[in-house]
Structure formats: C-alpha cells, structure tokens
Amino acid sequence: MDIYKLIRKNILGLEPYSTARDEYGGQVGIFLDANESPFDNGFNRYPDPAQKSLKGKVAAIKGVPVENIFIGNGSDEAIDLCYRIFCEPRVNNAVAMAPTYGMYGVAAGINDVEFRQVLLNEDFSLDTGKLLSKCDAGTRLIFLCSPNNPSARALPNSQVEDILQKFEGIVVLDEAYIDFSSVPSMLPELDRYPNLIILQTFSKAWGAAGLRLGMAFASRQIIGYFSKVKYPYNVDVVSMRAADAALSADVAAKVRITLSERARVSDALSAIPGLFVYPSDANFLLVKVPDADVMYGKLLERGIIVRNRSNMPGCAGCLRVTIGTPAENDALLAAFAGILGSGGTVPEAEGLPAGFSRWAEVRRKTGETDVYVRICLDGGFESSSDTGLKFFDHMLDQIPRHSGVALKVKAAGDLDVDEHHTVEDVGIALGEAIGKALGDKRGIERYGFVLPMDDCEASVLMDLGGRIDFEWDVPFTREYLGDVPTEMFRHFFKSMCEAMKCNLHVKASGENNHHLAESVFKAFAKALRAAVRRDAWNYDVPSSKGTL
Question: How do residues 138-147 score in pLDDT, each as one tens digit?
C-alpha cells in the first residue's frame, strides 16, 4: 500500500517547525538557542521535543522500535492527528462502530470530516461486512476500539486483520484497555500492515491518567508525519519524568488484582435480581439495570459515581462501572444490593459504609478488653458508642456529631476491676482506625484547630503530619464525671494521639466539669473535621518534604 497517496497534499509538502534541539545530537551543552531562562529550577528548559528517553523505555517494554513510536498529549492528540494528516475537510470521511469511544466523532467534527457509524450486533460483536459497506472512495480512516468502550468486548485479531487486508485506507486500532484482555495486542503485527495505527495509553493499566500521555505505534512513515504535524513541545517535562517513573512500576501485579476484582464484582452483580452484566475484556463492566437514570441518581446519593451510557446506541438501560479497589467494589456491591432490595444477596460487610473509601476497622483484643472501632472519615453509616461507661459513651458521641465522621465503638472490658484498660484501649483502637482511614493522606488539610466554644474555653490543635507530640492542660476539679475518672480523659487522648501518630495539644478552662469535658471532645471533633477534610481534585501530600 502506498501510504503517501492517503496523506493530504498540504501535509505531504509541510515543512515542520524545527528546533535547534532537533539538530543537536549531544547529551550536554550550553543551550543558548531557545530564549529560555538560564536559571535552573527543574523547569526552565523546554522539554525534549522527540521524547527520546521516554520512547526508549517504551520501546524496550513494548518490543517496538523507537522510530515506530509517537508520544502525545493523551491518545486524543493522536486521534486528532489522524484526521489532520489523512482527511481533507468536507471531502473525506471516517467510519467507526457504534457504540464506541466518543472522541473519534468529536475529533471528526472539529476537523470538519464526515463521521459514519455502524451499529454493533446485539451482543456487541462486529459485522465486518456492514462496516466495510459504509466505506467508499472518500473513506480514509476506520476506527476500531478493542476492547471497546463502553461494551468492554475485544474484537478477534483475525477480524481486525481481515479489515486491514480489505480496506484501502488507515485502520486506527485503539488498544487503551488491552492490558486487561485475553486477546493479545496487535503490536507484533505492525510490520505486516503499513496501514495500521495502534493507540495505547498510560491512563489505564499504568495508572497515570493525570499525566495525559498517549502512545501511537505505526510504520516509520506514518510516525514521521505525526512528528511533523504535532506541536513542537507537545509533552511537558513533568509528565515525561513522571511517566518514566510509572513505567518502572509493577503493572502486572495491579492488573492481576483488577482482573480478580472484575470477576468477583461481575459474579456478585449478576446474582442480584434485575441486573445483567455483559462479559468484559477491560477494567470496567457494562451493566444493564431496570432504570438507568434512577439507578445512576441513587448511586450518586451514596457518593458513588459511575457512567450512565443509556443514551448510546445499543446501550439502553446500561451503566458503565469501573473496577475500583476491593473496598470501593464492596461499597458498590452493597449500594446495588441496597437500592434493588436484593434481600441480602450481597450483604453489606461489617464496617462497610456504602459509597465511601476512607474507612477502617480495628479490632483490639487483650487480656483485659475486647474493642471494636469502625470509622469512615466521610460519614456514611449510623454512629454509636457502647463501652459500658455511660459518660464515656456520651463523650465519644460528640466526635461523630461534631466532626462529620461516622464512628462505631463497641468495647467490653474489665470494668469490675477498673475503668483504666477500657478507656485506654478505646483510645488506642480509635487512633489506629483514624490512621488507617487516612491512608497516604493525599489531599487532606492536615491541620485542625478550634477556638473557644460552649461556656468553656476549649482549644484543640492538631497536626496529622506523623510526628507525635502531646500536650494537655485541662484542670478538672472533680475526681469522677458520671462513671469515668477525670484523670482518664488525659490518658484517652494521649493514647489516641500516639496511635494515630499526630501532634495534639489540648487546652481548656471552665467551672463546670461536665461542660469542660464535653467542650474538649467537641473541640477535638471540630479539629479532626478540619484536618481530615480532603480536596477531591488534590492528590498532593500536604508537606514540603513530600511525605508524611
């Protein structure tokens, strides 16, 4: 096939923008060519326009020569380049299956290229004859997504090869989800088909969606034109460095977990009356539900965001559900069961707040006590305290009430001997549970503090930075409050502080001892609320050192 006959005439004659870095082959030099700042801060230089180092690592992993690799700003850049290189606006057209990834059509519209779609069969298989019948002399591109989004079904490689052999244009095979499929990648066949472009991504198995990096693999000629048409510095320095690190990760282990969870979630959802789960070759499931709009809304109410695909061809009544962590998947299953009233087909696990991920359970069993703590930093279940000490329960109840967390505490201890072990072990278990629920602490505020409240002056200063320091200045004038020795409140907060690994400074004053204790617990709750608050779009660790 003569690829050059398919390329737009203005692109064939294009003189690309060239930088001095393209012409310089050395590794070290004095760069006075690009009017950059000479003061090194890690970002003062333009990035390598050819991404040589990153491409070298990709080439080693994928088994494809560097000359056959394009790195772009997400796969969307490569999709757009296909139109810009091969399709004359208002003259040529592109063909794709339906339903499929929406950006193929959006990019066609942006480039003023007719976009034709062929409806998949009821089981989401592709009729090759129907697809090719949509093509004519003006068809330059066929887009195939395998595994397909949103159907999650992979095309047989034999079918892709059949299309490649019969179609006299460019076949763009989007393998974004290939790492999760039992159908192998077509990368080894690249040399056999000069009209094949394969798209892959860093966003799925590699866990780097935030970097916005995509890959295209094709003949040296096609990649050469990709490099000519792209913007000179299309991938930034930060993304290239992060991608280099991501490529060193153990992706296979994470893929195995995802595949195991995919099977578990699929089986569990299939067991719920009213649901139908389509087979999947991807890291998501397409699930047919009784009423997609209602189900979507009810999942949102529980804090679970899925994709409503019911408006796409062939997907009426369907939701697309990504496979998450085991805890997130448990929450999803519990939510589906609760919404559809499955009568316990997928019972809510002990400690599982449906729709929330920052939760933990701790069971602390010693010779003197048996303590169970369940906490979710984002709420999600009914809170309760039962320690056998009524006043202590009353104080513990202030924590969820004023912090917004969900908290369940149940303790059985040797109260016939003394209150000490029960109060101490509840503090330790609660501190451990908060620490577990915080996870890597990305995106949290970290600091919490309050000012005077109630009729007492109470302040709690908190830093979740990982360093332990405890200060206590609360002068009780009574030996007992209810059934709890007042000296044990200091011991409770100290035990919790050490277990959750934080800085905790508590100070309060007032005449009424009951109000004094209550104001301290309320102030702690307010400080905790501020410190664990998380920005959903911020995944940085709140530390100048980069770690907590």
Answer: 999 999 999 9
